[in-house]
Amino acid sequence: MTSRLRRHHRRAVRGGLAASGVLLLGVGLAGCGSADASEAPVEKKSFPLSGKALTIDSDNSDIELVPADVEEVEVTRQVDGWVFLGNGPDATWRMKDGTLTLKVKCDAIASDCVAQHIVKVPRGTAVTVDDDNGSVRASGFGTPLKLRSDNGSVKVTDSSGALELDSENGSIVAERVTGKSVVAKSDNGSVRLELAGVPDLVDTVSDNDRVEIRLPAAGAPYAVDARSDNGDVDVAVPTDAASDHVVKAVSDNGEVVVRSAN
Hints:
Residues 74-258 form the DUF4097 domain. By secondary structure, this protein is mainly β. It is 11% helix and 53% strand. The chain folds into three domains: 1-31; 34-133, no CATH class; 135-262, no CATH class. The longest helix is centred in the N-terminal third of the chain and has 28 residues, at 3-30. The N and C termini lie far apart (88 Å).
């Protein structure tokens, strides 16, 4: 075989191998559907907690927080997923020094791994959540909540403690909350707050979406700072710069609305 023919043969072999690899990947993925944690088997585990503060470090999971009449932190999890040419889903749950780790890992050429955790927390416990990929929800808390997701929505309902809510890529919603301080920031998502109690401070920012705040009429007037670099601003509550009830609503790219909730 001449040198030119050998070079042509090697290129043909490499091209055939690449095509075969793409075909194999396509065939392998054709039988893989979307992962659905809600259909996965249910697992439960309890973790002792000393003190009145809990931190949750999570990844690739939706987190739901529930205050309950329990002595330990009770976790219910469901994990689902598939991998192509790799490993997973590998789920981890452990408690150390007041930090509950809830993570799901998939290491593969292609994968879809998801989980959901319901975390029952002893009443009177302040909770901090840092979720790398997934939504965070909480309802019925009377203690401070600090909830953050890198990639997912954050929602709090029917709670009376101070709130710090943050999402890098997702919406933020608070409904029927009565805490004196609500701080909410989304880098890429809307912010919507409906307050059922008169706040001392509301501080909201969206870098790229709409901001809407609904305030109790009983707290008027409010010291309102409402601004948008690229969007309409609608303030429909009585205002007074000297008010003890301070409201900040800012969007870099979206409408800003401040109205009465009543």
